[in-house]
């Protein structure tokens, strides 16, 4: 497979110094002691903590007060900002010669610089197979996964490997009740069907988009799916649903799933 290494464009100068230390043999990691030992047991070596960041200006989109609808401008902005952070994290992993990144965390932070600014951060531990067995993604880039060290070990023992961290999101405006609806429901126990349907639709859009990413990398399935929601300061009736998980595939076409032997910490 031909492969062009990822670029260091967008990485700060000091990141190069940190990566040079890692290449010289000093690894850094956010793995726990148990995770570190299990990753090594799976045949991989930690190379370094890799980080990607993007401070993004989130634009504005008008929403009708009485209409539930996706706010596509905001959806695209939130997705693109995360994608930038992920790409830069992958660039750091590539500079270390990593096969992939595990324990990936995607975080969104806000500062006092402005209400419309947010920092998107991707962080994880780059690893490489000890015997040089290539475990990269189909496009030649380092694989990414939010699996913990324990879950990664279990997955490898079962004959599977991660391909990519896949995600989908949807920023949705939930319609307000009219005055008549509010007064009519004030003294009743009743389902708020407009809210139910709006949130249901928004979650489904996020989940479906995550599934499409898994199809693009030819995954057999997605494990460890998490579904997050947050308003990010937009107000009570605008919410983002964010679905994320690890797309996986069998290591070989013929494999048997064996029961993993649990490794427990030694105590006195």
Can I get a quick summary?
The protein is of the alpha+beta class and 268 residues long. The chain is 31% helix and 29% strand. The strands form 2 sheets. The protein has a 4-stranded mixed sheet. Strands 2-6-8-7 form a 4-stranded antiparallel sheet.
User: Count of helical segments?
Assistant: 6
The biggest beta sheet is recorded as:
4 strands, mixed
| Number of extended strands | 8
Output the radius of gyration: 21 Å
Regarding CATH, which class?
A: Alpha Beta
Helix content: 25-40%
Walkthrough of the structure:
- This protein starts with 12 loop residues before the first helix and ends in an 18-residue tail after the last strand.
- 35% of the residues are buried.
- The longest helix has 24 residues, at 72-95.
- The protein has six helices and eight strands, in the order H-H-E-E-H-E-E-E-H-E-H-H-E-E.
- Strand 7 and strand 8 (238-250) form a beta hairpin.
- The chain has a four-stranded mixed β-sheet. The protein has a four-stranded antiparallel β-sheet with strand order 2-6-8-7.
- It has 268 residues and is an alpha+beta fold.
- It is 31% helix and 29% strand.
- It has one domain (14-250): Translation Initiation Factor IF3.
- It has helices at residues 13-23, 33-41, 72-95, 149-157, 179-185, 193-216, and strands at 44-57, 69-70, 100-109, 117-129, 143-144, 160-173, 221-230, 238-250.
């Amino acid at each position: 497979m031909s492969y062009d290494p990822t670029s260091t464009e967008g990485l700060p100068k000091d990141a190069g110094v940190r990566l040079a230390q890692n290449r010289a043999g000093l690894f850094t990691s956010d793995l726990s002691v148990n995770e570190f030992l299990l990753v090594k047991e799976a045949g991989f070596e930690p190379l370094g903590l890799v980080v990607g960041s993007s401070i993004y200006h989130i634009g504005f989109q008008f929403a009708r007060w009485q209409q539930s609808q996706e706010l596509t401008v905001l959806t695209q902005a939130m997705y693109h900002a995360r994608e930038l952070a992920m790409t830069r994290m992958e660039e750091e992993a590539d500079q270390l010669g990593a096969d992939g990144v595990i324990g990936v965390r995607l975080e969104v932070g806000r500062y006092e610089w402005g209400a419309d600014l947010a920092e998107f951060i991707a962080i994880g531990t780059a690893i490489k197979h000890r015997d040089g067995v290539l475990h990269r993604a189909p496009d030649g880039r380092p694989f990414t996964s939010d699996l913990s060290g324990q879950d990664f070990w279990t997955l490898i023992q079962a004959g599977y490997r991660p391909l990519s961290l896949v995600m989908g999101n949807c920023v949705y405006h939930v319609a307000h009740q009219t005055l008549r609806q509010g007064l009519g429901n004030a003294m009743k126990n009743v389902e708020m069907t407009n809210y139910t349907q709006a949130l249901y639709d928004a979650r489904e859009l996020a989940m479906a988009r995550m599934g499409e990413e898994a199809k693009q990398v030819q995954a057999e399935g997605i494990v460890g799916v998490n579904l997050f929601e947050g308003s990010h300061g937009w107000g009570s009736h605008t919410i983002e649903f964010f679905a994320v998980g690890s797309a996986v595939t069998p290591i070989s076409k013929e494999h048997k799933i064996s029961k993993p032997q649990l490794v427990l910490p030694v105590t006195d």
